[in-house]
Design goal:
The chain is mainly alpha-helical. The chain is built from 5 helices and 3 strands, in the order E-E-E-H-H-H-H-H.
């Protein structure tokens, strides 16, 4: 097997050094995560040779773990993460841009949710859509006023 260089592996999210000197490599993409416990020389020094030790009693579980690791290293999934935070950030950018252009909260909701959904829910008893647009605008102001720097430091992708 060829040497494994962690610097060229996009699924590597963290390397954590344990109290006894062992290192844990956390690999993940949008579909799966694998943790490797490594012993020996520090991982950051050079490419490493990887030897897998089977600690799983069921052969199917071991095969699944090896397949997940191979998929992470050879072809990580790049699916967009549609978490609540990511959607709020997207909506925040839409809201701040809309307000800068003079759009109302309802106009911004139409861009985010579509005309039919806004017609059906904007004037109803529930205020969730109005509150969501207000929160998005507040988050947009926060980003505009320097909050985007924290976002950049975290390395969060907006696309």
């Amino acid at each position: 097997m060829a040497d494994l260089s962690l610097t060229h592996q996009t699924p590597v999210k963290h390397i954590v050094r344990g109290p006894s000197g062992e290192e844990f490599v956390l690999l993940r993409d949008s579909n799966v995560a694998v943790t490797l416990r490594c012993r020996g020389c520090p991982l950051g020094r050079a490419p490493i040779k990887l030897t897998l030790h089977n600690r799983l009693s069921a052969p199917d579980a071991y095969a699944k773990a090896v397949t997940s690791l191979a998929n992470l290293l050879l072809r990580p999934a790049n699916d967009r993460d549609c978490s609540r935070t990511r959607l709020l950030l997207r909506d925040a950018l839409i809201a701040i841009d809309g307000k800068c252009l003079g759009a109302s909260y309802r106009d911004i909701a139409i861009v985010i949710y579509g005309m039919e959904r806004v017609r059906a829910e904007w004037v109803g008893a529930s205020r969730w859509m109005k509150d969501r647009v207000c929160r998005a605008y507040a988050k947009g102001e926060e980003l505009r006023d320097g909050g985007y720097l924290d976002l950049l430091r975290l390395g969060c992708r907006l696309s």
